[in-house]
Structures are given as structure tokens and as C-alpha cells.
């Protein structure tokens, strides 16, 4: 029998969804091997008893490389730039992430100064060539440098790429990995464009080695990767623009939410082993942002500008906080209890995994309070409660420490949800919360009560839901142009280029980065069918975001972008139901402030339409659901929880 395989590698677990040609779903969840994540994929696929015809994959490899994960060394990367702009990536925007911190250090430069090469060429802001690149000069300078990858970012190349393209032809004699800004980030702002191009170049050897190694071991040549913009790309696109894989894994969860419940307004909440992510879906559509910073600091879900490497590329709009099942609980110098940002990951993992971890985590706290059972993955993984108690006791009374730590984690995750709702001008009480990830359903109702959400949805296979999202995603390819002169004509030009490249396109989605004249930054909006209505859409978003509009000010469209969408056949996911409505056991659980004798059910055995009133625990293969008092849960394709 033929099958499709979706693979999502997280910081703690690697998730596999296997979909047979007749629609049967099977799942595998194993601990991630951070030193060799590809080995886990190869071992699992070899053991499958079906003929694999397609593999779709989400990875955190690009992010981990920029965060400095062991065994992921950034290769020596060179930069060719316009004469006089050698230090652009070091000068940056002069942002100080911590204004009064005299000891703040800038992010380590990916390209050392001796590998930054100035080329005597020049194009002006209108795209006119003032000085053509001298190929002999390029050859003379690059032949002497020793680097594995090279980036090229010339001034105003987003308007006219002529000099960059000529340079690329010379570089092909000396380098395998070449990244030019007019192909990677054809947008204004030389610092952000150069930074994006450098990061893309630095990631090319790492991502190429990883993906090619996986592909060589697969029994099929149909191998696709989730991009940060929420669609699948083929391996050639991923190898040429690995910068678009940075938020590959988190994007898959939002896509799963949008595809699974396309007619609902949803807050997507994904809590895994390392982090928790929140995003918004409105009528099946998710927000896109073109600004991102990787490898820097995050403060309560906000990326601290100037602390990392800026990227200009489309990303699903997400807020991410260091609050996952493996997040470490500790005390600071003032003896205050803290949660995160460090995670125990998969190796050694939480103390209760009994793999050598000695630092208590959120998973240990949930276990000690009875919210987790002592076996996971359908009984395939044992948790050691006594070891968790011993570790938590080093911080104080283990039960009090656990309760306070979970409260702190919930507050942190609630901030992430407010970032993508309240701070975007949206009222979270008008949304349903769809909670997934291995740890998400344990915390969902606590977040709902904190934020004022009235309806919570736990989808099928919640602990592997992001992997499921890979099977629900369409192909999505992007093209962009800056400072369009004739909006409709320029959109058509981009669409025609994508058709020429892809041959088949089902439909296009248009976006524009818009601002009032005189503003420094733009808002990304989805362009309506009638392009003359752009101003109205922009001002609606400006009002929701900033609380005001400037009706007397002209608007300016800085960059337009088009996504070409090729539909995939959506699989029909039919969860299994049982006929057993009795709890499997009664367990003491600290749900509010009291220990309560709590009924524990097995989701796979529950009949469709069965209703459970809290307090209750619903266990399943990939996750555990906590039903609080005053809430009830209805068993359907998803488990729907509402306040009574």
C-alpha cells in the first residue's frame, strides 16, 4: 500500500504522520536526536510497511544553526558589496536593544571584516548604471579569499540587478554556494537586504548537506519542505533560498489550524517541548509579516530589535515564547522562582524522562500535580514521578514550586496570545482557541480563563498536529518587486514570471507593503481584487494597529509580492472513536488550588457525541487534555470545550 509521510522535527520530539492511500492515519513520536536529526528520519522510514510516495518535512535546522547549536557551525562566508559599504552589516541601524546597558554586545558578525570585499561599482536609486562592475576586479579579489559561501549585495540592486548578475557569473568559477540580494531579497533598505542575503549564503551549505542527505535515503523523489510563509516548496527552492526555512516548523501549526477549520476565527496555540507559539487565523487566512529577526533575544514574545540578524522575507505572523514542556524551572540570585528561557530539550530532557536530566521542567511540574499520567505515548514511554519530586524539592516544596511555575508559564504564554490579538487590534474573546502540541492541551483552559476565551478546540492528533499541517498545506512560491509604477501591470508581470517558472498555478495571492508618505516602516496587507481599494484596507489595518489614520496623507507602496499557489489534494482525516464511556481510573489532580479526585479517560476509546464535565483528564497517544471545573468537553472530530 502507498503512503505519504509528514515529518516535523521539534526541539524535544520528532513527529511522524503516515497517511495511507485509503485515508488511514498512523502516528509515530520519538525523541529528537539533536546531534543528528536526519538519522531519526532515516530509521523510521526504513521501518515503515508501506510504499512511501511522498515526504513532506518541517525543520528547525536553520534557526538552530543561527542560535549556535552544537555540531552546527556557521561556514566561512564572504560578502561582496559596493565600494564604501563594507561595514554595513556591522553598522546596522544602531539600535540598542537595552538602552542603558553599557555591557550589551552586538550579535556576532557572520562575515568577519577580512571577508568583506568592496567592489567599485554603482547603480543609482532610479536603476541607472553609473559604474558597471569590472569582472576582472571581481575575479582578482575573490580568487584570494577562502570561504565556503559568498553573498553579494550591491546598492540599489533591487531596482536593477545587472551588476549582481554579472558578478554571480564570475563567482560560479570559485564557489558552489552563491547568494545575491536581487534574487533573495529584492527590497530597499541596504542593511536588511544585505543581512538577509548573508544569512541565506551562510545557511546554504548547512541546509544543502542536511536536505540532500535525507533525500538520498528516501525511497521517493517527491520531497517537499515547509517554508516560513506557510506553504510547501520543492527541494531546489529550499536549497537556493534556505532563509525561508527559518520558521518552517512553527508555520506548519498555523497552516494545520487554517486548513482544518477554514471557516472559523482561531487563535492557534502550539506548545511543544521547547517553546510555545501563537498565531491568528481569520476565516481560513493567516497574517503574513515581512519583518523578522533571528538569533536574537525575545522579551515576553517580542523579538528585541537589534539583538539578532534582521531578515526581509515573508513569514507567518507568530509570537513565540520560551515555555514548553522541557522549559527549566529555576531560582535567580534573589531566590525568586523563574521559568525559562533555557530548555532541557530531548537530551537529557526533563528529570522524569530518567535520561540524566537534573533540572526540573514544566513537564516534571505537570507530572507531580497529577495532570500528566506516569506513561506517555500509549504506554510506550515511562515517566518517573519520584525523580521529578526529588528535583523539584531542591527548589522548595515540590507541589508549591510546581503550581507557581505553571502559573508563571501560563502568564508568559498568555502574553504571546495577546501579542497576536490585542496588539493587532483584535479581541481574543471573539476567537476560539485551537490548542495543540504535546503540552498545549494541558494548559489550554488556563489560558482561556486568563484571556477571556469561551471556546477551546483540541484537534485530532494534537501532539502531532503540526506534522498533520504539512499534509494539509499547498505549494506556495513567492516573487516581489519594489516601488511599482503601475500596480496592476506590475502584479501581472510577477504572476507571469511565476507561471513561466512553475508551469501550473491554481491561483495567486497578492500582498503589498504600504505606508503613509514620510513614515519609516510599512504594514503588510493582502491586496483586494480591486487594487483601487488598497488605501481602505491599509487604513483599516493602520487604525487597528496604531489607533489612528492620517486621511490627509498620501500612501506609498514600497514593495509588492505575489504568492503562486498550487493546490494539493487534501487528505480526509477521520479520527477513530470507541464505545467506552467509563473512566479508566480516578487520579488525584491539583486542578485549581485543591487536590481533586479526577476521572481519567482515554480519548481513542470515547464514543462520538460523549460529553465530559470537568474536572477531568483525557489522555491520548500524543497529548493529555486537562478539563477544568466549570468547563465541559464534547467528543467530536475535535474535542470542543466550552464554559458551562
From TrEMBL:
GO cellular component, one term: cytosol
All residue ranges annotated as the Acetophenone carboxylase-like C-terminal domain in the record: 484-639
Domain Hydantoinase A/oxoprolinase as annotated: residue spans: 193-478
Gene Ontology terms describing biological process: glutathione metabolic process
Record domain Hydantoinase/oxoprolinase N-terminal: where: 4-174
Organism superkingdom: Archaea
GO MF entries: 5-oxoprolinase (ATP-hydrolyzing) activity
PANTHER family: 5-OXOPROLINASE RELATED, HYPOTHETICAL 5-OXOPROLINASE (EUROFUNG)-RELATED
Annotated protein name in UniProt: 5-oxoprolinase
Amino acid at each position: 500500500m502507498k503512503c505519504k509521510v509528514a515529518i516535523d522535527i521539534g526541539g524535544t520530539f520528532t513527529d511522524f504522520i503516515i497517511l495511507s492511500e485509503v485515508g488511514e492515519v498512523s502516528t509515530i513520536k520519538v525523541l529528537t536526536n539533536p546531534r543528528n536529526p536526519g538519522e531519526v528520519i532515516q530509521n523510521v522510514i526504513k521501518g515503515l510497511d508501506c510504499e512511501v510516495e511522498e515526504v513532506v518535512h518541517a525543520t528547525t535546522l536553520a534557526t538552530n544553526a543561527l542560535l549556535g547549536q552544537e555540531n552546527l557551525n556557521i561556514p566561512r562566508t564572504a560578502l561582496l558589496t559596493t565600494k564604501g559599504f563594507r561595514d554595513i552589516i556591522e553598522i546596522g541601524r544602531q539600535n540598542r536593544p537595552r538602552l542603558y546597558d553599557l555591557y550589551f554586545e552586538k550579535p556576532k558578525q557572520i562575515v568577519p571584516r577580512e571577508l568583506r570585499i568592496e567592489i567599485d561599482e554603482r547603480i543609482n536609486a532610479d536603476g541607472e548604471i553609473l559604474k558597471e562592475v569590472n569582472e576582472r576586479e571581481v575575479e582578482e579579489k575573490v580568487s584570494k579569499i577562502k570561504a565556503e559561501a559568498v553573498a553579494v549585495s550591491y546598492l540599489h540592486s533591487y531596482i536593477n540587478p545587472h551588476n549582481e548578475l554579472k558578478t554571480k557569473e564570475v563567482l560560479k568559477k570559485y564557489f558552489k554556494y552563491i547568494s545575491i540580494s536581487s534574487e533573495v531579497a529584492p527590497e530597499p533598505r541596504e542593511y536588511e537586504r544585505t543581512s538577509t542575503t548573508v544569512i541565506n549564503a551562510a545557511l546554504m551549505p548547512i541546509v544543502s548537506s542536511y536536505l540532500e542527505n535525507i533525500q538520498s535515503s528516501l525511497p521517493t523523489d517527491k520531497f517537499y519542505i515547509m517554508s516560513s510563509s506557510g506553504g510547501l516548496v520543492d527541494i531546489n527552492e529550499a536549497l537556493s533560498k534556505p532563509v525561508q526555512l527559518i520558521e518552517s516548523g512553527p508555520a506548519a501549526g498555523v497552516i494545520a489550524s487554517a486548513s482544518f477549520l477554514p471557516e472559523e476565527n482561531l487563535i492557534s496555540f502550539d506548545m511543544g517541548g521547547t517553546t510555545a507559539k501563537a498565531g491568528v487565523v481569520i476565516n481560513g487566512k493567516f497574517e503574513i509579516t515581512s519583518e523578522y529577526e533571528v538569533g536574537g533575544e525575545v522579551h515576553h514574545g517580542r523579538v528585541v530589535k537589534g539583538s539578532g540578524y534582521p531578515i526581509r522575507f515573508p513569514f507567518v505572523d507568530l509570537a513565540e515564547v520560551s515555555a514548553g514542556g522541557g522549559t527549566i524551572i529555576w531560582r535567580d540570585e534573589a531566590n525568586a522562582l523563574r521559568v525559562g528561557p533555557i530548555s532541557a530539550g530531548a537530551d537529557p530532557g526533563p528529570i522524569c524522562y530518567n535520561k540524566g536530566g537534573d533540572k526540573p521542567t514544566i513537564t516534571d511540574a505537570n507530572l507531580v500535580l497529577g495532570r500528566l499520567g506516569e506513561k506517555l505515548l500509549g504506554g510506550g514511554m515511562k515517566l518517573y514521578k519520584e525523580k521529578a519530586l526529588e528535583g523539584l524539592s531542591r527548589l522548595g516544596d515540590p507541589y508549591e514550586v510546581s503550581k507557581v511555575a505553571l502559573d508563571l508559564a501560563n502568564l508568559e504564554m498568555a502574553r504571546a496570545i495577546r501579542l497576536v490579538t490585542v496588539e493587532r487590534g483584535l479581541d481574543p474573546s471573539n476567537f476560539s482557541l485551537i490548542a495543540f502540541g504535546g503540552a498545549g492541551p494541558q494548559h489550554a483552559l488556563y489560558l482561556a480563563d486568563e484571556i477571556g476565551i469561551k471556546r477551546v478546540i483540541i484537534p485530532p492528533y494534537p501532539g502531532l498536529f503540526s506534522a498533520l499541517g504539512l499534509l494539509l498545506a499547498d505549494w506556495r512560491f513567492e516573487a516581489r518587486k519594489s516601488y511599482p509604477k503601475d500596480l496592476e501591470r506590475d502584479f501581472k508581470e510577477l504572476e507571469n514570471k511565476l507561471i513561466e517558472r512553475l508551469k501550473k498555478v491554481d491561483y495567486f495571492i497578492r500582498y503589498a507593503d504600504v505606508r503613509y508618505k514620510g513614515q519609516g516602516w510599512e504594514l503588510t496587507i493582502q491586496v483586494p481584487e480591486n487594487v483601487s481599494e488598497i488605501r481602505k484596507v491599509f487604513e483599516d489595518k493602520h487604525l487597528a494597529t496604531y489607533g489612528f489614520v492620517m486621511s490627509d496623507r498620501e500612501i506609498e507602496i514600497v514593495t509588492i509580492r505575489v504568492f503562486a499557489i498550487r493546490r494539493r489534494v487534501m487528505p480526509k482525516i477521520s479520527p477513530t472513536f470507541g464505545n467506552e464511556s467509563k473512566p479508566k481510573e480516578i487520579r488525584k489532580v491539583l486542578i485549581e488550588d485543591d487536590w481533586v479526585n479526577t476521572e481519567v479517560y482515554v480519548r481513542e476509546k470515547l464514543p462520538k457525541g460523549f460529553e465530559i464535565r470537568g474536572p477531568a483528564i483525557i489522555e491520548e497517544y500524543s497529548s493529555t487534555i486537562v478539563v477544568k471545573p466549570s468547563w465541559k468537553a464534547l467528543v467530536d472530530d475535535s474535542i470542543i470545550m466550552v464554559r458551562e
